[in-house]
Each structure stands twice: as C-alpha cells, then as structure tokens.
Design goal:
It contains five helices and no strands. By secondary structure, it is mainly α.
C-alpha cells in the first residue's frame, strides 16, 4: 500500500522499488533468508524460509486479476460486517 497523497511519481517509484526488492529476494533466496534471520527471534532456517516464501513469491511480484478479486472480496466482507463504512477504491499500480 502506498499513500495516495504522495502523488503518482513517488508512488510509482516506491512501487518499483518494492517490486525490485521482491524480485531480488527471489533471485537470491539464501541472502534473503540470511537477512530475515536477523529478525526471526530464534527461528530455525527452514521455518524462516517458509515465512519468507509466504511474502516473497509470484503473487507479491504481480497479484494479477485473482489478487484484485481477493482484495475486493476482503473489503466487501469487511463492509458487510460493519468493519468498514464502504470498500476503498483500489488503484493498482503496474510497474
């Protein structure tokens, strides 16, 4: 998520930086695991790898139409349950 108030130029730069970071982590998974282990609070390497793979995967590079539908469903259900006044508009940045 990127705050709309940052404007289009900054939003696109942030989105590209995030995507590049995820792609790099997928390219060198062992380095990503080494980095994440610093914050793992004693997790063993393979458990840490499983957690990293939850967030560093093809869906985080591009969630596609399925991801957009999932977000729409999430926000619709939150609205139906009174957790949100209305579903937010989704401005999906393609980088």
């Amino acid at each position: 998520m990127i705050r709309r108030g940052l404007g289009d130029d900054v939003s696109l730069r942030v989105a590209k930086a995030l995507k590049d970071s995820i792609v790099l982590a997928r390219t060198d998974e062992d380095a990503a695991i080494d980095y994440a282990m610093q914050f793992g609070r004693g997790l063993d390497r393979e458990t840490c790898r499983a957690f990293v793979r939850m967030y560093v995967n093809t869906d985080t590079v591009d969630m596609g139409d399925e991801g957009v539908r999932a977000l729409e469903t999430l926000y619709r259900r939150a609205t139906e349950r009174g957790l949100l006044a209305s579903p937010p508009s989704l401005d999906i940045l393609k980088v």
